[in-house]
Amino acid sequence: MRIKWMLTLASMKMFMRQREAILWTLLFPLLVVILFGFVRFNGVGSIGLGVVNEAGATGADLLARIKSVRTFEVTEGTRESEMGELAKGERDLVLLIPAEYAPATSAEMTAYGDLEAKPQVTQLGGLVLQRVLDESAFAGAPGLRRTALSTLPFKSRNLTYMDFLLPGILSMSIMQMGIFGVAFGFVSLKKRGILRRLWVTPIRPNDFIIAQVAMRLLVLLLQMTIMVGVGILFLNLHFIGNIALIYLMGILGAVVFLGFGFSLAGISKSEDQVAPLANIITLPMLALSGIFFSRSNLPGFVRSITSVLPLTYLADGLRSVAIDGATLAQVTPQILGLVLWGVVSCALAVRLFRWE
Amino acid sequence: MTESRNIVLDVQDLVKRYGAITAVDGVSFSVRAREIFGILGPNGAGKTTTLECIETLRPVDAGTILLNGLNVRTQSQEVKRIIGVQLQSSSFFDKLSLAELLVLFGEMYGRSVDPLALLDEVELRDKSRAQVVQLSGGQKQRFSIAAALVNDPVVIFLDEPTTGLDPQARRHLWGVIKRIRSEGKTIVITTHYMDEAEELCDRVAIMDAGKIIAMAPPQEMITTLLAGGFRKEKVERLASLEDVFLSLTGHTIRDE
Question: Least buried of A43, A355, B167, B195, by fewest C-beta within 10 Å?
Answer without folding.
Answer: A43
